[in-house]
Amino acid sequence: AQTVTQSQPEMSVQEAETVTLSCTYDTSESDYYLFWYKQPPSRQMILVIRQEAYKQQNATENRFSVNFQKAAKSFSLKISDSQLGDAAMYFCAYRNPGDDKIIFGKGTRLHILP
Amino acid sequence: EAGVAQSPRYKIIEKRQSVAFWCNPISGHATLYWYQQILGQGPKLLIQFQNNGVVDDSQLPKDRFSAERLKGVDSTLKIQPAKLEDSAVYLCASSFLQDPMNTEAFFGQGTRLTVV
After folding, report:
1. Is B70 exposed, middle or buried (0-12, 13-18, 19+ CB in 10 A)?
2. Is residue A55 less than 8 Å (CB to CB) from chain B?
3. What is the largest CA-CA distance in chain B?
4. Exposed, middle or buried, A72 (CB in 10 Å: 0-12/13-18/19+)?
5. Which residues of B touch A104 (CB under 8 A)?
6. Does residue B112 belong to the interface with chain A, where contact is any CB pair within 8 Å?
7. In the 8-state DSSP scheme, what is residue A52?
8. Distance between CA A60 and CA A39 in Å, rounded?
9. Pairwise CA distance, residues B107 & B85, whole Å
10. What is the mean pLDDT of residues A45-49?
């Protein structure tokens, strides 16, 4: 069975600095999708960034980028120029294209220090 | 484009009572998920539908939880009877079916259930 592990329950970063959130996963599949979702106190899950496993190039969305290491089964999220609005829970998620099942990690709570 | 709609937003019930949650997914999304999120934890998949068929309900406590998706659109999740440990946020999400161009799931705002 696939699993997703986020080993950092909480992290803090100074406003305008850069922070990296870690995620590892376990799967025997070669084709899959990975996501980072943000969940602010409003509870609404918002997609931050996605990565297709068949793509070697790391995904980037404005201040958000990933470091996808397929062999190591690692998928970290880098947030550059951190802003107060980035404070939230961040969840790493894995999707198996075969059955569309989506599995989440336990999350990392990110604090932004002014 | 309208998002995933869930109701109610909040619900407080006493233990042993029953409760139902409703979800209306994004139009055209064949896959629908119900997740349970206990405070401070990640979402746990309870049940996954493709159209009106169940794909995975391996983590659904079937002695007290039930779910249905009528006509492959709206879905309801029911708990009867509720226990204190059912206090959580219940998230509904939907996505296109096995579409490599549209891979992410879209989430509703969730229902916060408190069992007292």
Report:
1. exposed
2. no
3. 44
4. exposed
5. 35, 42-44
6. yes
7. E
8. 19
9. 23
10. 95
First to last CA, chain A: 41
Looking at residues A83-99, what average pLDDT do you find? 94
* B77, two tokens: 């999740």
Contacts of A88 (CB under 8 A, 6+ apart): A38, A39, A40, A41, A109, A110
Q: Which of B97, B100, B107 sits opposite A45 (nearest CB)?
A: B107
d(CA A84, CA B63): 44
Q: Given a cut of 70, is residue B1 above it in pLDDT?
A: no
Instruction: Give the model's pLDDT for residue B97.
Output: 77
pLDDT digits (tens, 9 = 90+) for B50-109: 988 999 999 999 999 999 998 889 999 999 999 999 999 999 999 987 777 778 899 999
Chain B touched by A45 (CB under 8 Å):
yes
Question: Is residue A1 packed enough to be buried (19+ CB in 10 Å), middle (13-18) or exposed (0-12)?
Answer: exposed
Query: Phi-psi region for residue B61, left (φ > 0), alpha (ψ -120 to 50) or beta?
Result: beta
Work out the pLDDT band at A42, boundaries 50, 70, 90. Answer: confident
Q: Say which of B44, B55, B104 has its CB closest to residue A99.
A: B55
| Averaged pLDDT, B32-60 | 94
